[in-house]
Amino acid sequence: MTGKARSLWRTDGTLRHVGEPQWLTNEILQSLMAAFEDAGFQIYAVGGCVRDTILNRPVSDVDLSTDALPGDTVKIIESLQFRNDVWKAIPTGAEHGTITALAPSVGGTYEITTFRTDAETDGRHAIVAFSKNLEDDAMRRDFTINAFYADREGCVRDLVGGSADLAARKVRFIGDPIERIQEDYLRILRFFRFIATLGTYKNGIDQDGLAACAMLADGLEKVSRERIGAEMTRLIADFDAAPVIGAMEQSGVLLQILPGASALTLARLIDLEEQYPIEGRMLRPKDVPTRLAALGCDDVEERLRLSKADAKKVALVKQEAGKTTPSHELGYRHGYLPAVHCLLLRWASLLQPFDESALEDIWLGAEASFPINAADLMPTYSGKALGDRLNQLEDVWLKSKFSATKDELLRLP
Questions:
Q1: Could you tell me which of 58, 59, 15, 66 has the C-alpha nearest to residue 36?
Q2: Bond before 353 cis per omega within 30 degrees
Q3: What is the pLDDT of residue 203?
Q4: What three-state secondary structure class fits 281?
Q5: Which of 51, 181, 196, 366 could be bridged to 244 by S-S, CB 3.0 to 4.6 A?
Q6: Four-way CATH pick for 171-257: 1.10.3090.10, 2.40.30.10, 1.10.10.60, 3.40.50.300
Q7: What distance in Å separates the CA atoms of residue 66 and residue 115, rounded to the nearest whole number?
Q8: Which Gene3D superfamilies has this protein been placed in (predicted)?
Q9: Cis amide leading into 243 (omega within 30)
């Protein structure tokens, strides 16, 4: 922990305060939370915003939790004004207790959810019961590090022992891991994703959680491929993904969602990514589709319901990794970054070392422009013959590594 972070902790090791992050101190959120307190309700910022603030990580979303019922939440929001701007209440998930508060002109958007418990679950969906008890709400969450509640003053409540786990960078299920997973089997993948994000594998993975994930891996069949794909793409984007994917493989979780997949080539790929000279033309070439292709699952695109763009990229790097297309031609045909990704996957698949000189060839190709166009060959050639002649000359030009001039190409028989 940094010195600043230590000041937020009590001497007994529990989290005391979240500090004064911008997301909490801004007037928009303060006015919203004050309106709930003035109406006699509790309201807290909950989960990731608190956790990531303590870890000095960027906070993108601030979720709020309250004991106000959804109807009360709507009334409070719609009675609120900020600088003469009327807030709007959007019932984004009212049946589950979630209302979105929107202040259009000032741009404030917050999801506010009533304290709740899971009355009934089937591993995919939950029927919730609303509660006035903060502990009920905390106990239904997934991991201890996701169950911190910060009030408007920044004071933190930790009802599930998350402080010790956060200090140790440990991902641990709240209560019985088996029960938490059976409530929502996607929590298996979330378990591994948070391990990758926090780097906790370096200190060992929680064995109770890992054992529960292994035992219940077949429950992922109940989860939609879209939800699985969203978690996997977020997980594999982390720089420390390979050891965690390896743990998924050993536990049987990876096989359950991506038959035939392995972490070995991914580990080599990430090692090659780390060797990319960052003083060059870009940052290290971390690319989610390329990393997914490295797993070796034949139908990863379909199993993870990837977007058309990502599926196209997976197909490209797989195809080029299995070919011997020269570096300069890769750059010419696909552009600099895609060509780098193709080459990295090829090197990882064939156990080849990083070759910095190939980057220059890729750049040369990415900047090259074929000097012949159709008009240069007409009317001597037309139709299919014209296309064949253009392709023939382009092949000669590529084999010359772009050294053949326009005149030389036009003089060829």
A1: 66
A2: no
A3: 72
A4: coil
A5: 196
A6: 1.10.3090.10
A7: 6
A8: Beta Polymerase, domain 2, cca-adding enzyme, domain 2
A9: no
Sign of torsion over alpha carbons 246, 247, 251, 253: negative
Burial of 284 (0-12, 13-18, 19+ CB in 10 A): middle
Give Cα 102 distance to the centre of its chain. Answer: 25
Classify strands 156-158 and 85-86 as parallel, antiparallel or unpaired: unpaired
Q: Is 31 helix (H, G, I), strand (E, B) or coil?
A: helix
98: β partners: 93, 113
C-alpha 53: how far from chain center: 18
Cα separation, 96 vs 132, whole angstroms: 15
Tallying the residues shown for the chain, one arrives at 413
242 neighbors 270 (Cβ within 8 angstroms) = yes
Tell me which residue of 284, 239, 244, 291 sits closest to 265, measured CA to CA. Answer: 291
Contact present, 336 and 348 (Cβ < 8 Å): no
Q: Which residues are CB-contacts of 289 (< 8 A; sequence separation ≥ 6)?
A: 306, 310, 311, 313, 314, 317, 341
Cα–Cα distance, 317 to 147 (Å, whole number): 40
Would you identify the CATH topology of the domain 1-168? Beta Polymerase; domain 2 (3.30.460)
pLDDT in the model for residue 39: 97
CA-CA distance, 395 to 87, in Å (whole number)? Answer: 63
Question: Which string of b and e fits 25-49 if b means at least 16 CB within 10 Å?
Answer: eeebbebbbebbeeeebbbbbbbbb
CA distances to 44, 78, 82, 103 from 88, rounded to whole Å, are: 20, 6, 11, 6
Distance CA 125, CA 116 (A): 14
What is the torsional sign of CA 382, 388, 394, 400? Answer: negative
Query: Given this model, what pLDDT does residue 126 score?
Result: 64
Query: Token match 């996701």: residue?
Result: 146
pLDDT tens profile 242-273 = 999 999 999 999 999 999 999 999 999 999 99
Where the chain has pLDDT below 70, the residues are 1-7, 107, 119-126, 199-202, 278-285
pLDDT digits (tens, 9 = 90+) for 55-93: 999 998 999 999 999 999 999 999 988 777 889 999 988
Report how far apart, in Å, the C-alpha atoms of 169 and of each of 59, 105, 163, 228 are. Answer: 18, 39, 10, 24
